[in-house]
Structure to design on (230 residues):
């Protein structure tokens, strides 16, 4: 099915039927937000045993089950998995239009009306997104993150709790930023790079890099498929 590039500044309309891909801790947090917004949760698509009940909802099957279940392809979906590369792989595998990817924004967060948020992105509690920010699709903007004005955040990015991204910063696709880090203004972080927790980034970081410390320095290279803690 053909995908599109629809973006939104707020959550999808109330009372949608939603499938969650993943059944771990992130999915549990998102389940609670969906319940508070009166969405109907159909269940989880997961590698857990079909029929297993998690958070009072069933595991329906794995990705192969979904691919064969044509009746589910018109439902809203959200990929609730922390690993960027896994979210990206699932997005390609489920092959649905981006307007069926539910964007989830906690009511306790603030998103400027001058900013845009891509389909399938999750913005957690107390996050602040200032004006003229663009956030791509299927990102995770975790609890208490601050993104200042005129920043550009790519697709499949994971910004961990308490991160501060100063103005006019550019973060490319697939980047992971560890908890409590600070990204100084006008910095550019190349695609698929990982910034270690508590780092202070004062200079540009090239693609496929692991950078840590204050100031952050590149210590090795990584690939997009590397896990967060590898």
């Amino acid at each position: 099915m053909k995908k599109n590039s629809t973006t939104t500044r707020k959550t999808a309309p109330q009372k949608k039927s939603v499938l969650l891909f993943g059944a771990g801790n992130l999915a549990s947090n998102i389940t609670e937000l969906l319940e508070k917004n009166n969405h109907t949760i159909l269940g989880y698509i997961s590698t857990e045993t079909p029929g297993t009940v998690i958070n009072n909802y069933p595991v329906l099957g794995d990705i192969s089950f979904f691919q064969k279940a044509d009746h589910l392809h018109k439902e809203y979906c959200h990929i609730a998995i922390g690993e960027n590369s896994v979210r990206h792989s699932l997005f390609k595998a489920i092959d649905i239009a981006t307007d069926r990817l539910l964007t989830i924004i906690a009511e306790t967060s603030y998103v400027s009306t001058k900013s845009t948020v891509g389909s399938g992105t999750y913005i957690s509690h107390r996050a602040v997104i200032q004006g003229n920010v663009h956030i791509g699709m299927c990102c995770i903007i975790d609890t208490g993150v601050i993104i200042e004005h005129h920043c550009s955040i790519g697709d499949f990015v994971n910004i961990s709790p308490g991160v501060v991204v100063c103005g006019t910063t550019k973060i490319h696709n697939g980047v992971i930023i560890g908890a409590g880090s600070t990204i100084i203004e006008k910095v550019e972080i190349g695609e698929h790079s990982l910034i270690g927790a508590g780092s202070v980034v004062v200079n540009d970081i090239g693609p496929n890099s692991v950078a840590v410390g204050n100031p952050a320095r590149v210590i090795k290279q990584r690939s997009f498929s590397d896990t967060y803690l590898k």
Remarks:
- Residues 1-6, 8-13 have pLDDT under 50 and may be disordered.
- DSSP finds three helices and 25 strands in the chain.
- The radius of gyration is 17 Å.
- The CA atoms of residues 9 and 116 lie 5 Å apart.
